Amino acid sequence: MSITYKRIDAEDIEFLKSVCDPERVMTGEAIHEDYSHDELASIHRYPDVVVEVESREEVAEIMKYAWKKCIPVTPRGQGTGLVGAAVPVKGGILLSLVRMNKILELDEDNLTLTVEPGVLLMEISKYVESHDLFYPPDPAEKSATIGGNINTNAGGMRAVKYGVTRDFIRGLEVVLPNGEIVEMGGKIVKDSSGYSLKNLIIGSEGTLGIVTAATLRLLPLPRIAISLLIPFLTLESAIGTVPKIIKSKNIPTAIEYMERRVILNAEDYLGKKFPDASSDAYLLLTFDGNTREEVEKQYEKVAQICLDAGALDVFISDTPERQDSIWSARGAFLEAIKASTTEMDECDVVVPRKNVATFIRYTRQIEKELDIRIASFGHAGDGNLHVYLLKDEMDDETYRKKLTAAFDRLYKKGKELGGHVSGEHGIGYAKREYLRKTTGDTYMQLLRNIKTAFDAKNILNPEKICD
Amino acid sequence: MNILVCIKQVPGTTEVDLDEKTGVLKRDGIDSKMNPYDLYAIETALKIRETQGGKIKVLSMGPPQAAQVIREAYMMGVDEGALLTDPKFAGADVLATAYTLSQGIRKMGDFDLLLCGKMTTDGDTAQVGPEIAEFLQIPHVSNVRKILSMDEKAITVEMDMPETVEIQEVLFPCLITVEKDIYTPRLPSFKLKLKTQTKEIPHITLQDLEDQDIYHYGLNGSPTQVLKIFPPPKKEVSEVWTGTGEELARRLAEKLKELKFIRE
Predict the structure, then answer these.
(1) CATH code of the region A103-220
(2) Interchain CB distance below 8 Å, A229 and B193
(3) pTM for the full predicted model
(4) What value of ipTM does the predicted structure carry?
């Protein structure tokens, strides 16, 4: 959509300062560098003004104004995204929602938690677990906001058993691009009342509306979680075992794979030793339940399957200290890989789980053919892989060339194998071309029509997903 | 090198309720685990065996269900274990516990090196290790955070003192208690679980010990009388600082240095 946006001027700033406390409206030098990029930092653009909103009324007032004046607005949480979705590529207003960080209501009768969008994932788990309740989605980035998680439909490490963010959102309060406030869904379990707008907002990367409150679905907290760290001689044999585990019908909450070189990066990064780093490849499984006996029964079958499939051993992590020694490293993989190189970009492809091994094998081939270091880890159990292409000592031009060549081939292969461009990080700004290439015109036009239905003026987070 | 490691079963969580009247921990229905510091002691033993060869035994004292931690030690690669268990050992304070363990150790054979975790997470005294050494009349070093070297005669270690680090060389036989993070403990192995699940765990009772005087054991042998146990008040100290970014950054850096999170 080509559209002429109004440039921010002194009058606009005055307006914003009349809506919010002037201290929460920042321009020019006062705008922190962080606001010009997200976690991967390869796309840069400063907004003209940053507004740190504190209420849905402020959001609504600002959107009404921006709608009238045709000013682009980009919503942002903690900026932990990886595809540039929160980068204000058209300038304008950057709406930071991190101050909207209150837990509004725990409803133990309906097993729901209602929160503002800026509450951090780690705060949610800590809060609900203190009430013996459980919010299962478990992305590695615990300092992300729930608003960001909803907007990318974040998946995380328990998706195999429990599903993704979408499966745990009961209701949303959304400010539309024109400033109107709409409730979608609610504390209800079933809902066949027309199109599910709630589900359009989930995963919309801030392009359709701004989430100002969310009602999350909770489960009773499983009392026991035990992980198995399983060393294999090769990544092939590790990943080749996953379909056998799935077939065994003992469903772990998590099936992660990891390679020794990534574990070593994490050891360097954290200054802490991993409990075992003597093998080239590992699977990491978690089982949960309410009694130790129940969980042991589940994992023993799977442990035997792994040994039969060539695992060198099966290590058991059954205490908080042991869990921490493994999962703190797993949670730091992305940061650790990042710290091991000069620059990197990622491919968050998702393929049917039986094709994971084929895809990983293909990344190895690309690594050799294009002579670029590729690190990967991911959710072997749900087919979502995180493949990182690392710049190391390459010059900019060589890196760009190799990156483009590698991405073209990786996404093409992903599609061939029945996969999609993004499993959980989204399309944002960076992956639009690959979405277009892998879905086709009709699909893209439907996406654009949806965008227009919400935002005919295209002021909300322009240049993202299908724009 | 013959090594013996003392281990203990403790409650699986730090949030254990106390019976306010009797001062006794409510252990029923609570998952238990090996004292986390003992995992570091076992790992230290396994690391030493890798280079020096020899045998590792573990000894635990507790009710029959405490055999679970010995099973776990087998799953980590320990060669042998035994459980000191007798109703007459019940109610032992720090001194009686250390004495009982020292008697049990004598029963188990001759050792070059005795290893203990720095302390337990349920008792928190850090006294049992050193007291065992005193009863056995061998030298000991507490709070060992690093092993610098060893030969047939002696071991050289770094001892973590509150303000300083002391390097000590100590002759075998000796006892050391180890700090958290001396080595990252390995995880229990499922393969070893299968291999050792029928392996025997011998019990050592009062009548197996050299000293069988019941007044030296359990409640009878405990000079400490517990009047009352209560959880300490939870301290949550928070400070709010104001100032410019630069002032605050400097202040934060100073504070982190003071708390020893960072060095100059």
Answers:
(1) 3.30.465.10
(2) no
(3) 0.82
(4) 0.80
Q: Where in chain A are the domains? A: 10-98, 103-220, 224-334, 341-430
Q: How far apart are CA A35 and CA A23, in angstroms?
A: 16
* B142, containing H or E segment: strand B140-150
- B112 or A251, greater pLDDT: B112
Q: Is A275's CB within 8 Å of B33's CB? A: no
Closest among A416, A437, A421, A352 to A387, alpha carbons compared: A421
Which positions 58-117 of B are in contact with A (Cβ < 8 Å)? Answer: 75
Query: Which regions of A139-189 does DSSP assign to beta strands (E)?
Result: 169-175, 181-185
What's the pLDDT score for residue B16? Answer: 60
Kindly report the nearest CA distance between residue B55 and chain A, in angstroms: 22
Residues of chain A found within 8 Å of residue B185, distances taken between Cβ atoms: 275, 322, 325
Provide the pLDDT for residue B262: 79
Q: Read off φ and ψ for residue A352, nearest 5 degrees.
A: -55, 140
Q: Which helix (H) or strand (E) holds A217?
A: strand A210-217
CB contact under 8 A, A273 and B187: no
State how far residue A405 is from chain B, nearest Cα, in angstroms: 41
Nearest CA to CA, how far is A273 from chain B (Å)?
A: 6
In this structure, the number of other CB atoms found within 10 A of the CB of residue B113 comes to: 24
Q: Cα(B152)–Cα(B11) distance, rounded to whole angstroms?
A: 38
| Cross-chain residue pair B187–A276, CB shorter than 8 Å | yes
More confident residue, A221 or B162: A221
Residues in a beta bridge with A356: none
Decide: B189 and B75 in contact? Cβ < 8 Å. Answer: yes
* CB-closest option in B31, B39, B193 to A292: B31
Q: CB distance A315–B188 less than 8 Å?
A: yes
CB contact under 8 A, B186 and A276: yes
Domain presence at residue B238: no
What is the CATH classification number for the domain harbouring B57? 3.40.50.620
Fold of the CATH domain A10-98: 3.30.43
CATH class of the domain defined by A224-334? alpha beta
Does the pLDDT of residue A398 top 90, yes or no? yes
Q: How many CB atoms lie within 10 A of CB B173?
A: 17
pLDDT digits (tens, 9 = 90+) for A441-460: 999 999 999 999 999 999 99
Chain A interface residues facing chain B, Cβ-Cβ under 8 Å? 224, 228-229, 272-276, 292, 300, 303, 307, 313-322, 325
* CATH, range A341-430: 3.30.70.2740
| Nearest alpha-carbon partner for A332 in A252, A268, A384 | A268
Smallest Cα distance from A106 to chain B, Å: 23
Nearest CA in chain B to A300: B190
pLDDT at B228 over 90: no
Q: What distance in Å separates the CA atoms of residue A279 and residue A363, rounded to the nearest whole number? A: 20
Provide the shortest C-alpha distance from residue A284 to chain B (in Å). 13
**B261: chain A residues, CB-CB within 8 Å:** none
Q: At what angle do helices A260-270 and A320-331 cross, to 10 degrees?
A: 100
Please give the tally of structural domains in chain B: 1
For residue B181, give how far its alpha carbon lies from the nearest alpha carbon of chain A (Å). 9
Looking only at the bridges linking them, the beta strands covering B32-34 and B9-11 are antiparallel
CB A128 within 8 A of CB A108: no
- Measured CA to CA, the distance from residue A206 to residue A153 in angstroms comes to 11
A13-17, A73-77, A262-266, B46-50: lowest mean pLDDT where?
A262-266
- Residue B21's pLDDT is 62
Q: Given CA atoms A158, A161, A165, A168 in this order, what sign does their dihedral have? A: negative
User: Which B-chain residues 137-196 have CB contacts (< 8 A) with chain A?
Assistant: 183-191, 193
> How far is it, in rounded angstroms, from Cα B134 to Cα A184?
71
